[in-house]
Amino acid sequence: MKKKLIAMGLVVVLAISGTQMAGATTLSKAKNQKNQAQSNLNSVNSQIDSIKSQQSALQSQIDQVDSELVQVLVDLDVVAGEIENKKVELAQAEADLETAKAKEAEQYGSMKERIRYMYENGDSSFLDALVGAQNFADVLNKVENFSKVYDYDRNLLVEYQNTKTEVANLVAQVEEEKQELEENQATYQEQQQQLETLKAEKSSQMDNFGSKLAEAQSLAAQYKQTIDQQNAIIAQELAAAQTVRVTAGASSVANNSSAASSNKKNNTTSSNSGSSNSNSSNSSSSGSSSDSGSASTGSGSGSAVVNYACQFVGNPYVWGGTSLTNGADCSGFIMSVYAHFGVSLPHSSSAMRGVGREVSVSDMQPGDIVCYSGHVAIYMGGGQIVHASSPSTGIKISGNVHYKTILTVRRIF
User: Fold this and answer.
1) I need a labelling partner for 159 at 20 to 30 A (CA). Which of 16, 89, 212, 302 fits?
2) Highest mean pLDDT range out of 7-11, 31-35, 264-268?
3) 193 vs 141, 207, 343, 389, 391, CA distance in Å?
């Protein structure tokens, strides 16, 4: 009987051992797959965080481009209106010039006619006037009258000629200002095209990031599903192992009880007892991540700024440039001029509208920054400005500070 019980116990132990070995293999495999999936998930989550960070930075760039594009469109609209105003002003100046030419020609013709008459018929009338004179004073008076007529004609002709010259100069000036505005318009249109191209490129990059993000999120969902599946397998295997251990303990107790009863019947005293208890636990870990306009004050004077700026007259205009010798745009020119005096200014014509302190147009002084729509210049005094004008004229001095609508005047020193 005793041998039979021992044999039965061995069968149970062997069965339990085989079950435990199979369970251990499945459990180990599930844990390995879970750990691998967790590692992959952590890597994908890092990629997702990186993509989102790049998306945020790119969106900021797109917003900046949009802001610059809006400003360029506003500048285009303003300069288009100013060009139309210059056309009207130019038409009036040209009409005035034609009027001045006509008056000059008319006066010149009248003067020639009187001179011809005086030379052809004037001898006898002039002599008659002298002969009819009552005394020498009367003679001098008549001679003086003839001279006054000639002087009047000559002075009037000179006056008309001067008027014609002034109007012709005005026509040339307005024509030059109109051409400069048209060049500004062409520059703005080029900037608009470049900004629109840049925005399209960045929008394409944003779409690409969107695709990458969707792909990474899909992978993350798959890895999470794998982790959940392996966690279920692990829980199942742990429960099965616990059941086997409980069953093995119960069988051992039963066998020991049967052996004790048999020994008592055979008057043999022995005691055998054994029990084993084991506990196991499993913990899973999850990864976690943490995310860790105004001008500076310098020293100088407005006249010193003007003198320094005028050294670079004749140098080229380059959009986006800041070199006083190799080329600068309007804001880059002023930024670099003031940098010489230790003043930091923004490289933006619109941003310069907020630097320093505002002064009235009537109170402009040399060195002040004159802000137009989409353009800035340095006031020289006497109605003149020095500025990086356009690609065709470069850095130049212009004689009419009011050639465009002045938005504000800013004073640094």
Assistant:
1) 89
2) 31-35
3) 77, 21, 32, 20, 17
What is the per-residue DSSP string for 354-367?
Answer: GSSEEE-GGG--TT
End-to-end CA distance of the chain: 116
Full-model pTM: 0.55
Secondary structure (DSSP) of 64-121: HHHHHHHHHHHHHHHHHHHHHHHHHHHHHHHHHHHHHHHHHHHHHHHHHHHHHHHHHH
Superfamily holding 302-411 = endopeptidase domain like (from Nostoc punctiforme) (3.90.1720.10)
How far, in Å, CA of 243 to CA of 114, rounded? 139
Return the CATH number of 2-265, one of 1.25.40, 1.10.287, 3.10.490, 2.60.40: 1.10.287
Q: Is 386 left (phi over 0), alpha (psi -120 to 50) or beta?
A: beta
Question: What CA dihedral angle connects 190, 312, 347 and 353, to 10 degrees?
Answer: -100
Helices and strands counted in the chain (H then E): 4, 8
Give the E-state strand segments of 176-335 in sequence order. Answer: 322-323, 327-328
Contact 409, 387 (CB under 8 A): no
Please check the confidence at residue 326 and state whether its pLDDT lies above 70: yes
Query: Which tens digits make up the pLDDT trace of 80-126?
Result: 899 999 999 999 989 988 988 888 888 777 777 766 665 555 445 55
| Cα(235)–Cα(249) distance, integer angstroms | 21
Q: How far apart are CA 309 and CA 303, in angstroms?
A: 10
In this structure, the number of other CB atoms found within 10 A of the CB of residue 288 comes to 7
- Tokens for 41, please give them: 């998930």
Token digits of residue 1 = 């009987």
Q: State the Cα torsion 259-260-261-265 to the nearest 10°.
A: 100
For helices 136-265 and 2-131, the axis angle rounded to 10 degrees is: 180
**What is the three-class DSSP state of 276?**
coil
In residues, how long is the chain? Answer: 413
Q: Is the pLDDT of residue 385 over 50?
A: yes
pLDDT of residue 289: 34
Mean pLDDT over the full length of the chain: 79
Determine the Cα–Cα distance for residues 234 and 25; give it in Å rounded to an integer.
11
Give the residue, 220 or 124, on which the prediction is more confident: 220
